[in-house]
Amino acid sequence: MNLEAFEAERGPAWRSLDDGLRMAGGRPERLGPEGVLRLGGLYRQAAADLAYARRRFPGDPVVARLESLVMRGRGAVYGQASRRGGLADFLAHGYWRRLAEAPGALAAAWLLLLGPAVATGLWAAADPGAALGLVPAEFQAAADPPAEGRDFAAGEGAAFSFEVLTNNIQVTLTAFAGGILLGLGTVLALVYNGLLLGAVAGLAFDAGNGTAFLRLVSAHGPLELSCIAVGGAAGLRMGWSLIAPGPRRRGVALRAAARRAVEMALGTIPWLVLCGFAEGFLTGPDLPVEVQLGIGVALAALFWGLVLWRGRAGGRGRRQRRPRDFARR
């Protein structure tokens, strides 16, 4: 079927779907039971037409037209179920689905973060004088931490916790926002933070302060690095949508990727808050370093365990909650 015949045959159904969406105004129940069923049927047909158009007519304006129509239709058909769950459903299921569906981006983010960290840590241990010049002045104290780690009074701990929270959110969102620059900003943010982490760690261990360094970072570090990796993965997904948009136009591909990336970044913020509290209150001498390290590993294991558990279980639950009439072909 050529393009003209395709549009002539399927165009009336697209116009009917568009009319129905306009009448519904974001509330399909206005159409009544029969109208809702008809809207669902028209949406499914349009989604099938979009798949066909992407394969047969890539780059043609009809593809962008159908993408817009199907996106509006999906919001109307499935929007009610999504709105019922709201924020709680997103934090319980949606966020973890977003992470579980991006294993490649997460792996790349971890590689960009830990690869430079390991290399720079070995270099700093071998040539501490040169490595010290890489560390900004405000971070050089971390390369020679006090043996007891940080020991705050309650008020000081709360203030420091807030400072850490602000810094962690800034680093994570910088890694995320860099995706708009074809992912280059994200790559630079991840590599820079990896270099800084490796240099500080290498200098601390070379100076005999390895235990003090672990006391300083172990309670929050594994979870904090996980959050930064998630922000980086979100940015890389946006950047890749611009580099390789597939059959879609770059603007359409970027919008789709950006929505998922924003969800990944925003869903990470509560965990960054937890990192701030952990660093503010668990880095002093009150706890043995083994306990602090155990807490850090446990927090990271909880985070990635939820990715594996909620990422899969949430996806199954969502399919089961779809209205039956809309899902039937």
Structural class: mainly alpha
Number of helices, where a helix is a run of at least 4 consecutive DSSP H or I residues = 12
Please tell me what the overall shape is.
elongated
How many domain regions?
2
The succession of helices and strands, N to C, reads HHHHHHHHHHHH
Instruction: Please compute the radius of gyration using only Cα atoms.
Output: 25 Å
Q: Which blocks of ≥5 consecutive residues have pLDDT under 50?
A: 154-161, 313-329
Helical content (DSSP H or I, runs of 4+):
over 70%
Our estimate of the beta-strand percent is under 5%
| N-to-C CA distance | 22 Å
Main beta sheet: strand number and arrangement?
none
By DSSP, the count of extended strands is 0
Average of the residue pLDDT scores: 81
Report on this model:
- The protein folds into 2 domains: 3-85; 101-287.
- Helices cover 80% and strands 0% of the residues.
- It has helices at 3-24, 32-56, 61-100, 103-126, 128-132, 154-177, 184-206, 210-217, 221-243, 250-281, 289-321, 324-327.
- Helix 6 packs across helix 7 (184-206).
- The longest helix is centred in the first third of the chain and has 40 residues, at 61-100.
- It starts with a helix and ends with a helix.
- Residues 154-161 and 313-329 have low confidence and may be disordered.
